Structure to design on (405 residues):
């Protein structure tokens, strides 16, 4: 109904404008004198501008958006430049330009607003900037622009929507962690070191493409000459650091901290040279097989950038329903902000088959464990479940010996 009224509203305002012109002219003709004719000639420029503006088309405006890059980390600042070009010199008193942001960005803190009032006058090219101070995690879409203009008297108003879609991805914030395995799996019972995953360099089992960090002595020159690419020897791994992470996606006030810690953990493990997989159940189930390298890190971060706290099931039901755990022969890391007895029972059952399970319990920066949580931590030790309490802002202490419980 509102859309049907818009054309009638424009026609009505145009009729009112013509009526005011005739009214002031009639008043000057019948009244005469300096004052009446001064009133008419003073109103005439505004009336003529309104008539010209009523025939002016906003379609000639070419509005573009410049975004420096497409990938950001949560908390970074985004500066957007909006450029406007037009072909005619028709004077425009004002333009109210609004960048149609996604709902996820509309409520973010903006130092300079995405809605700006510009006074172009006779200019054919002009621009303005707006700044989003702290980007929230997620995939954000800039849909287009909404442009409004009018005259000084408010008799003629125009509005136009233009589609100009842009997209950015904001990855979760992460903290640099020094990853250290909680338990070792050496064939000969050796101790874990702080170096990258150790390999038996005396026994080469194949060749693979060169990766950053490979030693010069690992290069297989014969294979490199045949394939015309640098190939390195693939050695038998002496220690298994491979692990699988299960992240809780149930609605919780600490969900952003869960995502941030998960991203920090994944990055630390992959940078160490080990391999890791991830399971999340939000709106949909997403499982990433255990792999290593930069491609795995990019896939996991892209998934974490878009993940939402929309899990239809509790964390313990997720562990119960996933039969894949029985087939895995790697270490399991569980990440959640809730510690319940049913969760410990499911984790303990899994630990009976797979060895000790590690559960990272995410808490607020100054949040202390409750009495129930303290008793559950004591129960966890008896059920072969290691509980590591991690506070927001202190992720780097996650692998310190002090935090092991």
């Amino acid at each position: 109904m509102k859309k049907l009224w818009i054309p009638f509203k424009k026609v009505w305002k145009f009729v009112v404008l013509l009526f005011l012109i005739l009214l002031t002219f009639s008043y000057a003709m019948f009244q005469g004198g300096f004052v009446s004719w001064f009133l008419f000639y003073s109103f005439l420029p505004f009336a003529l501008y309104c008539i010209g503006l009523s025939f002016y088309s906003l379609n000639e405006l070419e509005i573009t958006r410049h975004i420096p890059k497409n990938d950001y980390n949560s908390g970074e600042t985004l500066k957007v430049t909006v450029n406007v070009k037009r072909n005619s010199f028709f004077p425009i008193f004002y333009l109210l330009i609004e960048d149609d942001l996604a709902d996820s960005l509309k409520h973010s803190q903006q130092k300079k607003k995405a809605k700006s009032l510009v006074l172009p006058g006779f200019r054919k090219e002009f621009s303005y900037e707006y700044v989003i101070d702290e980007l929230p995690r997620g995939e954000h879409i800039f849909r287009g622009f909404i442009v409004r203009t009018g005259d000084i008297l408010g008799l003629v108003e125009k509005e136009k929507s233009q589609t100009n879609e842009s997209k950015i991805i904001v990855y979760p914030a992460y903290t640099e962690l020094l990853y250290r395995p909680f338990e070792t799996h050496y064939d000969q019972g050796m101790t874990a070191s702080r170096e990258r995953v150790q390999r038996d360099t005396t026994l080469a089992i194949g060749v693979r493409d060169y990766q950053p960090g490979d030693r010069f002595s690992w290069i297989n020159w014969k294979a490199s000459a045949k394939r015309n690419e640098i190939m390195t020897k693939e050695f038998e791994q002496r220690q298994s650091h491979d692990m699988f992470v299960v992240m809780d996606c149930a609605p919780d006030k600490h969900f952003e901290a869960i995502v941030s810690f998960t991203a920090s953990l994944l990055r630390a493990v992959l940078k160490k040279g080990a391999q890791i997989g991830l399971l999340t159940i939000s709106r949909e189930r997403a499982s990433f097989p255990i792999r290593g390298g930069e491609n795995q890190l990019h896939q996991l971060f892209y998934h974490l950038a878009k993940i939402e706290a929309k899990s239809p099931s509790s964390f313990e039901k997720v562990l119960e329903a996933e039969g894949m755990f029985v087939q895995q022969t790697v270490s399991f890391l569980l990440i959640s902000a809730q510690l319940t007895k049913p969760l410990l029972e499911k984790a303990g059952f899994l630990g009976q088959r797979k060895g000790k399970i590690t559960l990272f319990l995410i808490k607020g920066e100054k949040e202390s464990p409750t009495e129930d949580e303290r008793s559950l931590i004591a129960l966890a030790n008896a059920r072969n479940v290691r509980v590591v309490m991690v506070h927001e802002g202190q992720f780097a202490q996650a692998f310190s010996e002090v935090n092991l419980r």
Remarks:
- The longest helix spans residues 2-31.
- Residues 184-196, 198-202, 401-405 have pLDDT under 50 and may be disordered.
